[in-house]
Amino acid sequence: MIKIFMTQKTLTIAISHANSNRNKPIKQAVCDRGYVGAKVVLGANIILPKKALKRDNRYQRDKKRKLCKRRAAIEPIIRHLKSDFRLSRNLLKGQVGDEINVFNGCLCLEFEKMAGNSHYFFVLAKTGFIFL
After folding, report:
1. What H or E segment, with its residue span, contains residue 115?
2. Which of the two ends of the chain, N or C, has the fewest CB atoms closer than 10 A to its terminal CB?
3. Residue 6 and residue 52 in one domain
4. DSSP symbols for 54-108
5. Do 102 and 62 belong together in one domain?
6. Which of 74, 98, 119 is the last residue of a domain?
7. E strand or H helix at 129, and its extent?
């Protein structure tokens, strides 16, 4: 299974590239609601978040819901990376520049998480609850 954030045009390229790096071919791909295209691409069934089918049993409905929730949980993180850490604007050249830009954005996100957690440590140290 692979989580896809693309359209029909780049979906075939992404699945073929992922299949070349794996031992087994991809059987399922989860896309968001904006995806419009084929339901089967290179042998992979495309799962979209939509109303459950009448013929689906409880297990199948819960499994699709879980996959789509995992896919939807990534969206806010990507949105914050694009807006807060300038991931939407890239001034570096080429594919290496793209990789450096994404790496720097993710590094800033992780640093912000660590700094947010360490704030409480410094407050406790300043008030005297923790001795340095």
Report:
1. helix 94-127
2. C
3. yes
4. TT--HHHHHHHHHHHHHHHHHHHHHHHHHHHS--S---S-HHHHHHHHHHHHHHH
5. no
6. 74
7. none
- Long-range contacts of residues 63-71, Cβ cutoff 8 Å, at least 24 apart: 67/1, 67/28, 67/30, 68/30, 70/3, 70/30, 71/3, 71/30, 71/31, 71/32
- The token pair at 63 is 């499994």
CA distances from 91 to 22, 78, 95 (A): 33, 19, 12
Q: 27 and 70: one domain?
A: yes
CB atoms within 10 A of CB 44: 22
Provide, rounded to the nearest whole percent, the portion of the chain with pLDDT above 70.
Answer: 80
Both tokens of 68, joined, read 């789509």
Q: Compute φ and ψ for 122, nearest 5 degrees.
A: -70, -35
Structure tokens given for 2: 């692979």
pLDDT digits (tens, 9 = 90+) for 47-105: 888 887 889 889 988 888 888 888 778 878 878 778 877 777 777 788 888 888 888 88
Assigned domain for 79 exists: no
What is the enclosing helix (H) or strand (E) of 21?
none
